[in-house]
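Weekly modeling sync, notes
Attendees: S.R. (lead), two postdocs, one rotation student

Agenda item 3: backlog of single-chain predictions. S.R. asked that every request posted to the team notebook include the full sequence so nobody has to chase files. The rotation student volunteered to paste the first one in as an example of the format we agreed on. Action items at the bottom.

Example entry:
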Amino acid sequence: MRRVLAAFLAACGLAAPVGAQADIILDKVVIFSRHGVRPPTDQKALDPLSVDPWPTWPVPDGDLTPHGATAAILMGLHYRTLYAGPGFLEPGTCPAPGDLFAWADKAERTKATANAILSGIFPGCGLQAGFDPKAADALFHPVAAGVAPLDEEVAKAGVLEAMGGSLQAAKTRYAADFASLAQVLHGPDRETCAKEGLGKVCKLIDLPWGIDTDKSKGRDLSLKGPLQMASTVAEVIRLEYSGGLPEAQVGWGRVKNAGDVKTLLSLHKAQYDVTLRTPYIAKRNASQLLHQIAVALQQGTDLPGATEAGPPPSKLLLLVGHDTNIATMQATLGVSWTLSGYPENDTPPAGALIFERLRDTQTGDRYVRLVYTAQTMDQIRRLTPPSTGAMPERAVLALPGCAPAPVPETCRLSDFVQTVQSRIDPTALAPVSWR
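Predicted structure, as returned to the notebook:
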């Protein structure tokens, strides 16, 4: 018997709505996951920001840690719980042709996370995700790849507007958050302070603020100075905590619990809000991914996008990239979530944006449910297996512009595609290599 909506909702920990139809089945799933726990991507750049030594990690900068791999396997087990069942992905077997396609960014941490998730969904099958070996993958990095270059003046104007009109406005706005960070981060070091003419002792917030638009041909825009640095420090401390480092090494022993980490992450959120989530920058970065996902969701239907070039058709499409990808898609779609223990729209390690396609077997109508899911910080730190009462958090998202559909918490597939296409930038698209 095919899985019905009520059983599907029960597996997700949700109550079946009144009038749930027994002929609504799960038809296709697209999972876009962030990579798992990693060390800093550039430890040398972090060193001058603290007078205390940073902890050491068991892998090179930026790579997936063994702890992160185990947590990603547990997320795969969570997906197995949700999606492996009669009529969709058969339990107890390796995927049949057409069941699965997995693709990752070329970075070690993204490839390794994809493979870990696959081993959780399909244990013992030895599955590995594909990837594009080019220096800048046009799917995950369209701006850097030159597919969607930024107009630097437009981008800079958007950043300044998001900051409140000026760099000084941002410095004032986030002063209290910097004060909280200073309770944990003792620094910068003397050399950094002296180099900026601030004496032997200074505060991170008092280093020069700026916006870097000096990259070639509009292929990057970033903040320079305190907010960018503070965002990175906060993210690294989150990774220390989630990654299971000893308590004495999490924020130099000055971060005691997940609540303390959440407080510091306010500066990480702020940096993303004023850069990646500004409408122009978000759309230039996210259009390529959202277009390909929309094409994938139309495969096997009579909608126009079904004939476009996209990823190989499959029941389950797993994509693994970065929190930057999820942040720009979130902003472009206009959706929002808040999971317990995290700031609004936070993107934890191995958290995922999921597109679930449902089908009415009587009418053939298809619907899309949009979900964000992630383990709590303590679930990642403790490597808690998904089980009753300890499932990863799950938020069903409402896509603005989608009309109410007969199936609760969904859009009609045609409405979903139309809404997504209305939000993306067609000049930011280019062919994608899936081989």
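Discussion: group reviewed the output briefly. The first strand starts at residue 24 and ends at 34.
Action items: rotation student to repeat for the remaining queue; S.R. to check formatting next week.
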